[in-house]
Amino acid sequence: MKKKAVFLLLVLTLVTLVLAGCSSKTGNTGADSASAKLKTVKIANYSGAVCFAPLYAAVEKGFFTQEGLNVELVRTDFEGTKEGLATGKIDATLGLFHKWVKPIEQGMDIKFTAGLHTGCIQVVAGNNSGITRVEDLRGKRVGVDAIGAGPMNLLAVALSRAGIDWKNEVTWKAFPPDQLETAMDKGEIDVVAVTDPYAQFIIDKNKGRLILSQAETEPYARDYCCFVAVSGKLIAKDKETAAALTRALMKASMWVNENREEAARLGVEKKYTGGTAEGNARLLAKYRYVPGVQAAREDFLKAVKDLKAAGILEVDRPETLVDKAFAPVTGEITQ
């Protein structure tokens, strides 16, 4: 009788262990299944700019997850991002319009799908340069982060409007963005044109004065500067994923609009960007985070016309380039 009781106890123990194991496996399978439902996309974070706040917020606040996406951020430079988007190895990024439009004109398979915000380029003159406005730049040396990049192209448009030949009457010098301040200190350049926060660092240290702000200077202050830039290959093979990541970034942009101080803290604390939370919050306060599709297309067309007038773009009909490069994969986001 005693042996039978021991035998039954052993059987019950084995059954309990087996059931527990099955339960554990079933639980894991459920978690794995939920994870498997998320589609992985690669998004380039190539600048660490303050204005990339919607990207950081979309990751940290779950906007990508809500759209069924598992995002892998790829840290690379602009050239790596450009090549990755063109080949389909990178699915999307946030794109400073003035930086991306020339490669698109030259045949890169990259599409804009929505606008996210206005104004993240500043032009700052050294205190001892004697420069107080764009019209004073004739014969001066301008430091930029890259030849042909967004800040240079925006300033070239402003120079053209001021009657200055930006190709021959201004000297352009390229430095890594975090070295522009040093170049100004050494007297190698008179002016800096760069995305935030680098120009703001110079202003905050009382080393220079603002002469053009894309966020505050007319006629640029209400135009989108940063768009969602998506690989044309992704749109061709999986338009819904392109739409999902566009919606996530648009929703994140709306969140930034309502939570600028928190967005600034998030960017610094999670080491997405440099600067301080307080300084970056002041910059974010200048931008208009009002994402849109149709308004972005209209701004795109207007900017293409400006770039053509300045001799930066060679396209015969601006409308043709816009039709080619703007892909409205999703509708407007209202909430």
TrEMBL record:
The gene is ssuA_1. This is Putative aliphatic sulfonates-binding protein. Residues 40-259 form the Solute-binding protein family 3/N-terminal domain. Pfam families: NMT1_2. Transmembrane segments: none annotated. Residues 1-20 form the signal peptide. Belongs to the bacterial solute-binding protein SsuA/TauA family. InterPro entries: Solute-binding_3/MltF_N. Keywords: Signal.
